[in-house]
Amino acid sequence: EEYIQVVIPFDNKTSTMKFNSAAALLAVGSLATTYGFTPSSSVVSSFTSHRQSLARPSARLPTHIQHTSRSTTTLSMSALKVGIVGATGAVGKEIVGCLEKRDFPVDSLRIFGSERSAGKEVDTKFGKVKVELFSEDAARECDVVFLAVDGDFSLAHAENICAGDDGAVVIDNSSAFRYKEGIPLVVPEINAEATKGKKLIANPNCTTAIGLMAVWPLHKLFGLSKMIMSTYQAASGAGQPGMDELKEGTRAVLSGERDVAENKIFAHPLPFNVIPHIDKFMENGYTKEEMKVTWETRKICGLADDFPVSCTAVRIPTARAHSESIVALFENPVDVAAARKALEEAPGVKLVDDVDNMKYPMPLTATGQYDIEVGRLRENIAFDNALEFFVCGDQLLRGAALNAVIVAEAMVENGALQTKTAA
Q1: Which residue in 299, 296, 331, 96 sits closest to 210, CA to CA?
Q2: For the whole model, what pTM was predicted?
């Protein structure tokens, strides 16, 4: 039997109650309404399973990974010296927000930037933080450093920051080390154990991270044999400049200032258009963005180097949150009811699948949410032993910042991330 333990803070006291999975979700919602708090800031839930796993290859989930990742964390340890490089960018800002909302154990927060941003002050839950000019020596003074910068910067500095026993743990959001042997590529709900004993961790591509949150529970249940994915990716995938270009271009067209928007960030004007081209084209006809899904799915899930995964990636004129249509083929016969149950119970996943009431995943509802949404779940009629479903997830959170912070939480739990004095 599975249950969720919910700790409710009220009048400086706490009450602990246990529910089965469905009851707990109802209880938390009701209590939140009654007592005026939100689960994202005040409810701590821990998921314990007493049922033998149905899984195929399966990793034990770190105990800090909640039934829903909107809950705050409860990490019992000394507070850490945390550094962020690129904290004024779109992903960097979200990393700061995740550290705040999840009550990550921060002793001090240091923000590193370029000469242009050095000296500016950033308001955080941890107080006003003055942006420091980046240097490797300064970054090495931290216990953990989050890199929210481009791949060239990471290639130049990441390994130096974490080198030696006195180096910092580095969690890199770029593509620089994702495919390098010996460096873990991590979605913590899937392969958190890969971080043990490591000091440099790669964060996956946003599209891969969002899709695998839904695919992994089904793989454990039925055994994935092939996957076909089509993505509908928001302007946020190109960072703040991409979102700004979409916003300004839309304004210019609607105001009559221009017939067609300008484009500098994207290959073509994005407003009122879709672009089946993200990243450069490769010799096999796929784009690099599409091949990232193939390469990263294999590495994260521990699949064979020739495991069949195909993707078509399309940029669409939404500001934030990526969408994906996924056809997953399995080794074993599928059961939609069992698949629904697996998705309902998966940490970081919200099943939104009530077509009678027009409820299904959408960027509008997934934006700003820690959990990915999955719905339109059905048995595929073109292939045997196949399921088809639709996924939406916030690219800047689940696809980047949140994943990085949960990686750090997993490393705290398995001992790979400690204060320098404790180490």
Answers
A1: 296
A2: 0.81
